[in-house]
Design a protein that fits this description.
With 263 residues, the protein is α/β, with parallel strands linked by helices. It has two domains: 120 residues, Fructose-1,6-Bisphosphatase, Chain A, domain 1; 118 residues, D-Maltodextrin-Binding Protein, domain 2, CATH 3.40.190. 37% of the residues lie in helices and 21% in strands. The chain is built from seven helices and ten strands. The strands form two sheets. It has a five-stranded mixed β-sheet, sandwiched between helices. Helix 1 packs antiparallel against helix 2, helix 4 packs across helix 7 and helix 5 runs parallel beside helix 6. The termini are far apart. This is 3'(2'), 5'-bisphosphate nucleotidase. It comes from Nocardiopsis composta. InterPro entries: CysQ/Inositol_MonoPase (IPR050725), Inositol_monophosphatase-like (IPR000760). Pfam families: Inositol_P (PF00459).
Amino acid sequence: MSSIRNDHEVARDLATEAGQRLLRLRARHGFAEPEVLRTLGDRTSHEFLFSALGRLRPSDAVLSEEGADDPARLGARRVWIIDPLDGTREFAEVGRTDWAVHVALWENGGLAAGAVALPAQGSTLSTVDPPWLPEERPADQRLRITTSRTRPPAFVERMANRLGAEVVPMGSAGAKICAVLLGIADIYVHAGGQYEWDSAAPVAVAKAAGLHASRIDGSELEYNESDPSLPDILVCRPELSGMLLASIREVADRDGAGPHSVN
């Protein structure tokens, strides 16, 4: 990979290549030992991405789920935020395609580039060429909310009932946000625990495509913070954001909790 490629292309190409390596690992190792496969997947992808970024962008810092957190990133102008294998559980399950590779660049206070590879789905969504969003969703179409298949926030079912929406459980956060980007779902909402690497790359692509992305109280998603915890998120079509944020507040008020306590 040439170092003259722009940051958007670097994010896309690295995420795609890491995903291809994970597919080969999956095929070679099989699924008989899922814990071993998960460990190998995390390590293989991290080592490739960390090494490639060190070669292509040697002056930049890296924050990775699988690497030691270097405090020097807090003073850096450019930080790559990567999740080498998002949806590790799904990666080690036969037939699951809802896992991803995330590569994002944070620069001077905001997300500047990003890519989400969905290797088992044969695609990579990136800020090189963000997905095109239809101008309007069909008015008679039931809302679809995608949320965690293993840790769904308790308030989502109540919110879905209030809105008459269908709940669509999925694995990787990247796969869920890409589902909104691709029109498979209308809303992704999560509360109860995530980190910057879980959302940085998909949020970069979502915002480039024109989606709304925020905390569930409507505040900004902040990256390259001293504490990388970023526990909740809402991603949706922009015309739905006001209604959804109000619905989340109503559910929280009914339960006697603040919006960050609705998990």
